[in-house]
Amino acid sequence: MTSSPGSTRTPVVAMASGTGSLLAALLAFAERPSSSFTVAALVVDRDCPAIGIAEAAGVPVVRCEVGDYADREAWDRALRERVAEYAPEWIVAAGFMKILGPAFLGAYAARVLNSHPALLPAFPGAHGVADALAYGVKVTGCTVHLVDGGVDTGPILAQGVVEVRTGDTVESLHERIKTTERELLPTVVEAVVTRGVVTDGRKAYIP
Ligand code: GRF
């Protein structure tokens, strides 16, 4: 499918907690005349540089912090309500550092993507780059997957491989992984928006 400026593009809500370089890559891709999606809003769970990137692009920012709610469930429900205002077809966690709960995921079943900086199922969790480096693997990379109720456990859609170099630090390795993530994630978003996803138990693919 090809879009032209002014044509209807599929609304996607991005979520971030950090520097926002993946968000910037999504926004740059969405700006292309041929892109089929638009970033309708950014959700953040904390003060972070990603907010400035969204604002500079004219993208509304929804700030939803766990500490502002009675408990995690209330936060999860509030997140669902606030995101629903943008009627997204897909949600893209691009460096979002919170686990999404059942109320949110139930509203967007199999339509939430996450980018993880390791080759899942190896090295899930918040320290995937450091864990891979400490383990001594020679290749690592990134994974774009559907989000389920677990920690980086959902069906895998795409992966990119990055070599570990002698002398790598967590920072140097993570930066090379993020270079790959910035290419892979927008490509996968474009693919799922235009072609959808087929799931078969643990397995998922873009037809
Ligand atoms: C990415 O490596 C992502 O996989 C991880 O956090 C990083 C986000 O980077 N969860 P940035 O904030 O988009 O630069």
Q: How does this structure look, described?
A:
The structure is a single chain. This protein is α/β, with parallel strands linked by helices. It has a single domain (10-195), classed as Rossmann fold (3-Layer(aba) Sandwich). It has six helices and nine strands; from the N terminus they run βαβαβαβαβαββαββ. Strands 3-2-1-4-5-6-7 form a seven-stranded mixed beta sheet. A hairpin with a 2-residue loop joins β8 and β9. α1 (21-31) runs parallel beside α6. It is globular and about 45 Å long. It starts with 9 loop residues before the first strand and ends with a strand. The structure holds 5-O-phosphono-beta-D-ribofuranosylamine. Residues 16, 18-23, 94-95, 115-117, 178, 181 line the site of 5-O-phosphono-beta-D-ribofuranosylamine (GRF). 5-O-phosphono-beta-D-ribofuranosylamine binds next to α1, β5 and α6.
Tally of helical segments: 6
Mean pLDDT: 95
**Beta-strand percentage range:** 15-25%
Q: Could you say which overall geometry the principal axes of the C-alpha atoms support?
A: globular
Based on the coordinates given, report the CATH architecture: 3-Layer(aba) Sandwich
- Approximately how much helix is present in the residues? 25-40%
Radius of gyration over C-alpha positions, nearest whole angstrom: 16 Å
Class of secondary structure makeup: alpha/beta
The total count of strands amounts to: 9
Ions, cofactors and other bound molecules: 5-O-phosphono-beta-D-ribofuranosylamine
CATH class: Alpha Beta
